[in-house]
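I hope you will forgive my troubling you with a question about protein structure. Here, with my thanks, is the record as I have it:
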Amino acid sequence: MGAGRDRRSEILDAALACFVERGIGATTIADIRERAGATTGSVYHFFASKDAILGALYVDRLLRYQRDLAWRVKRHRTARAFIRGIVEHYLEWVETDPPSARFLFDARRTEAIAAVEAEIAQANAESFAMVREIARGFVAKGELEKFPMDVFTALIIGPAAAYARQWLEGQSKTDMARARVLLADAAWASVRKRSTEETK
C-alpha cells in the first residue's frame, strides 16, 4: 500500500470518528483534518468536500463488510451453516465495529450519498449475486425453501438489523452473544426446507 493510499485511509478513519462523535451534520473539514493530523492541502488532494469524504467512507465501509461476508459464507458446505453464517457475520460486525455500523445506518439517509449511489448499487448487486448463487445451490439440493431474493434477504437479515439498531442505541436487553444465537436459529428456521410431514 502506497503512502498516498495510507493518507487517504487515515483521512477516512478520522472522518468516521468525527461523524460518530460529533454527528454528520456538525462535523467540518477542519475537524477531520485535525483528527487525521493532515494538512488542508492533503485533505483536498483526495476529497473535494465533506460530502465527498462521506460518500467515499460509505462505499469503503460497505465494501469491507461485503468482502468479509463473502470470505465467510463461501466456506460453508451446508445450508444451515451458510444461513447462520450470514446472521452471525452481520452481528459480529456490529459488535466489533460499532462506529462503522452506526455510520452506515445514519449516512444512508443523507443527501451526500446520492453521488455514490451507482457505486453502492454495484457493490450491493455483486454481493447479492454471490449470496443468491450460493442459496440457489442449496435450494437445488433441497436444503432451502425457494423465496424471491428480496423476501429471502428480509427473512434472514431483517430481524438481525432491527436488533442491531436497538443494540447500537443501548436499548437492547438481550446481550449480543445470546441474540446472535437466537437470531441465527430463527433465520435458519424461516428458510430451511421443510419435510412433507412438517408442512401437513
The CA atoms of residues 47 and 53 lie 6 Å apart. The two ends are 58 Å apart (CA to CA). The chain has a mean pLDDT of 93.
